[in-house]
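This part of the workshop introduces the protein records we will be handling. A record pairs a protein's sequence with a compact description of its fold. As an example, a complete record with its sequence and its structure tokens follows.

_____
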Amino acid sequence: SFTKARRTLFDSAAAQLHQLRGAAGIDLSKHFIEVEVLQQKGQGCFSGPESARGFCFVSAMAGDYAPRVCLETSMGSVTVELYQKHAPRTCKNFLQLVEKGYYDGVVFHRVIKDFMIQGGDPTGTGRGGESIYGKKFEDEITRELKHTGAGILSMANSGPNTNGSQFFFTLAPTPWLDGKHTIFGRVTNGMSIVKRMGNVATDTSDRPTQKVCVLSAKCL
């Protein structure tokens, strides 16, 4: 239906805007005006003031909910917003693992400067981890979400449909990962911490020479 198609379009546009705003701390507020669409009141989707460029951007449909998680790391606090509408099974897996304390004390075992930092494996080897589904689960790839810059939260895997508990944060645009890894969130607070973690010294296996870990994680 037209309504369903319009909702899908708005959700995708909102997610892309959030990605852009999160990348490198870019503030797009001067270029776009976010307006809430009050569908139940029948208001038009482009009602409201226009920006200097003449565009109006929708942030979310009424009733949307974006879960947030705070990761207290050994270098500081990082808050992420999850793309539940685009990757519901991935977000459910991450949230339930957080609630179980699964990530508490888990190290970031792989860091590649100007690329990404990877964690979520309780064995700390890069070969461990599990999902709430009892096995590896399928990718949730969408063309609307791409690895556009620093601060994208995405699932690590060993091939198609092999998601478990491991995840990574991008440190730069990584377009070659598009279509191969499930994007399920972005950093909303603490990007400076992520960048600091991305600059730690590593050995020849990309493992940090100093311990960098998640001390605790909680749903907000």
About this structure: The two ends are 34 Å apart (CA to CA). The beta strands are 34-37, 57-61, 68-73, 76-82, 110-112, 116-119, 152-155, 167-170, 183-189, 214-219. Residues 2-61 form one domain.
